Amino acid sequence: MTDSLQDRTESDALVVRGGEVRTLTRTTRVRSLTVADGGSLTAPEGHHLTVTVDGVETGSKLLSTYATTTAVAPGTYRGDVVVTVTEDHPASVMDAPFHLRQAVYVDADGVVDAKSVPSAVRGGTYDGRSARGVTVTSTGEAFNGFYIAGGEYELTDATFDFDGNGRSDFSAQGAAVVAKGPTTRLTIDGATIRTRGAVRAGVVADDGARVVVKNSVITTTDGTLPDDYEDVLGPGMMTVPWPLGLSGNVRSVVTLGDLTRATYVACSVTSSNWGVLASDAVGSSTMLGNLDVPLRLSAVNVDAVITGKDGYGAYADVNAVDTFLGTRFTGVTYGLVLSGGSVTLGDSTHAQVAQLDADLETGLSDEEIAALPERASVIESRRFGALLHQFPGSVLSVTGGTRISSAGTVFLNKGVKADITVDGSGGARLEAGNGVLFQFMDSDDPIINSGDFDDVRAVYAPPTGPARRDPEWDVTEVHDDDSVARFTDIDLRGDFYNGARAGRNIALTFTRTSLHGVISASVAEHRVAAIGPEQYRELGEVDNTAAPAVNNGVIVTLGTGSSWTVTGTSHLTGLVLDADATLTAGTVTVDGVPTEPKPGTSYHGAIEITTA
């Protein structure tokens, strides 16, 4: 539909009575609109209606809790009332259909009038290539602000203020700003984005789009879920999956699909719960990310904040490659969650930022880079530093002056292959409030363990009794599926445990590193007998008792210049000492035989080390 607004006098009113169905075929302006209970104001097939009052989108209501189309809610609307008829804008996630509406739809040819609601844009100016100083306000449900689906676009000094639920941030239905498609290049500078509502994301990048967000403030706040909403997994979910150990129903920014690149520079990004910076393999054009064409999420000098009780700073899904330079994560449950993705934490030195700019083609000028303060990345977590779970292959690199401080465990690995590297040569520090720097354990995700992804209220029952030895599993060797961690040039104070019952070893290598703590196989026990949705915060919470390895080997390499002061009985299955490594301990036995460890020697078997 490309009809312009139809002007009417101030006395004109549009009334839809109870039991009446009225279809508008063109955009209409009135001073008063009344839709009585039982009445219906509709658009022709293949079209949708959007109501604005004095430039504010309002009155849109999802047809039902799980519907993906909106209707005009009953009520009386007075003022400058515009009812806009727009063509359907379909989206699909995992074959699930969604129907989007937006204030401005742009493709490679410019603004698409037939899919836009110009009366929802106040102030400023905009055209098919840029917008400056505009404001979009929405108090209805599932309405988007700017949707860029092709070409280059610049959005400068814009304000978005949305209050009401979205429907799906996988489809971007309800997000303030969306960039989609491999030909899309979007730059956002100086934006203020505020949303309040379930899955009402601030910015969504999808399907190969390139997005750069600078000097912006993005704040998202949980909404009120419909009374009949029940947890689901998949494209229609409106809450974080509780087996992640979190609560909440909104993520601030979401990067989706293959080859998508989103970079945030000098921004404040805040969410009440769930998550701040999300990179998710599931997109509107893909079900699971292609590892050969990763998506990229990056943040430079970004403050990522959780203001509620549960949420992550950043999530790296299976094909995500995330880089955080000078980024500060505060108020979080997990600073990072890795599910097969790759994350680098480092400093925002001008050289590092320039290299990131070159790699991602963000278009930052030399002046912009030079103006950025150089700072270290920081994680200040109320529970865990980083969670590694679900998909194998996660890679985490901690560099520069990064500081990770957590009230609980720093690195929590729930039974997956992973590679962690911590380089302390630039001053990196790890601080564990509970004294555990590294915890390896079996997955306690009840849905993953059950294998039934429709059973969203599954309960995890921790195993009882001792683990049974698997005669086929070699606890003294490093396997392809084991978890490895390397620490270089750092002073570590804390413990490392492998509490897995299934066949999983950990391999720890220390180079020019001083360690005071325990490194041991363990019996890891949850604090409760069963964990369901109401006990979600017990997930990942275990107490360790050091014990000889059963299927949970621990292989330690004290490399050059390293020292380990043993602070409690430790059980290993492999110990490699470099020629200048130092082990400070009491007694050492290998397969029950007292042994005097010698530098430049390797030991394998049941190794018990006591304190001095």
Topology (elements, then pairings):
Blueprint: E1 13-16, E2 21-23, E3 28-35, E4 40-42, E5 47-53, E6 56-58, E7 60-62, E8 70-72, E9 75-87, E10 89-93, E11 96-100, E12 102-107, E13 110-111, E14 121-122, E15 125-126, E16 130-132, E17 135-138, E18 144-148, E19 151-156, E20 159-163, E21 177-180, E22 184-189, E23 192-196, E24 203-206, E25 210-214, E26 217-221, E27 251-256, E28 261-265, E29 268-271, E30 274-280, E31 295-300, E32 303-306, E33 311-316, E34 320-325, E35 328-338, E36 342-346, H1 350-360, H2 366-371, E37 378-388, E38 394-398, E39 403-406, E40 411-413, E41 418-423, E42 429-432, E43 436-440, H3 446-450, E44 483-488, E45 491-493, E46 495-498, E47 506-511, E48 514-517, E49 519-526, E50 542-546, E51 554-558, E52 563-566, E53 570-577, E54 582-584, E55 588-590, E56 593-594, E57 602-609
Parallel strand pairs: 1-3, 2-4, 6-17, 12-18, 16-19, 17-20, 18-21, 19-22, 20-23, 21-24, 22-25, 23-26, 24-27, 25-28, 26-29, 27-30, 28-31, 29-32, 30-33, 31-34, 32-35, 33-35, 34-36, 35-37, 36-38, 37-39, 37-40, 38-41, 39-42, 40-43, 41-44, 43-46, 44-47, 45-48, 46-49, 47-51, 48-52, 51-53, 52-54
Antiparallel strand pairs: 3-9, 5-6, 5-9, 7-8, 10-11, 12-13, 14-17, 15-16, 49-50, 53-57, 55-56, 55-57
